[in-house]
Design brief:
7 helices, mainly alpha, 164 residues, 76% helix, Butyryl-CoA Dehydrogenase, subunit A, domain 3
Length: 164
């Protein structure tokens, strides 16, 4: 595959990768790092890809995994907060609780088993339907439902002190 094809891939799907990472991490700088890591990893293996790669599905999986790895690495799976989310809104007091919740969610997601975190991000944060998540992850609809249920239960326990 050509260098021009890679550039087209970045131009076509770069915003999706950045937005997915931002929804998981809630931090623009960390999301930009993930964006770069995703495309750097693809570039390193670029000659091995063929023209039949389902890029949207592949990029969702890779981005979610790299974002969760970043959250785990950044926090050591501890309850330390992520860096403050950068926001362009001029009313910081109105965003304080939402920012804090986003940070707590990122920390909690990093503590979930990988598949539960993948399913939660794709289903709840990205808004994909169960069938789409199943196709992206290569599993059954029922498996998606089970992982989502278990993930939600664990997230509820991890966030109960904050939400309750």
């Amino acid at each position: 595959m050509s260098e021009n094809s890679f550039e087209n891939l970045v131009n076509e799907h770069g915003r999706q990768v950045l937005n997915t990472a931002l929804r998981v991490l809630g931090d623009v700088n960390l999301a930009n790092d993930v964006h770069q890591e995703v495309f750097l990893a693809i570039w390193k293996r670029w000659p091995s890809y063929n023209g039949h790669t389902n890029w949207p599905a592949y990029l969702y999986r890779v981005t979610v995994r790299k974002a969760l790895e970043t959250a785990r690495r950044r926090n050591g799976c501890q309850d330390a907060a992520l860096p403050e989310r950068q926001d362009t809104d001029q009313r910081p007091e109105s965003n304080l609780r939402a920012d804090e919740l986003q940070q707590k969610l990122a920390v909690a997601l990093a503590r979930l088993p990988q598949r539960q975190a993948d399913v939660f991000v794709l289903r709840r944060l990205e808004g994909l339907e169960t069938a789409e998540v199943a196709e992206l992850l290569g599993c059954s609809h029922q498996t998606v439902r089970v992982h989502l249920h278990r993930g939600l239960r664990k997230l509820s326990r991890l966030l109960s002190a904050y939400l309750g």
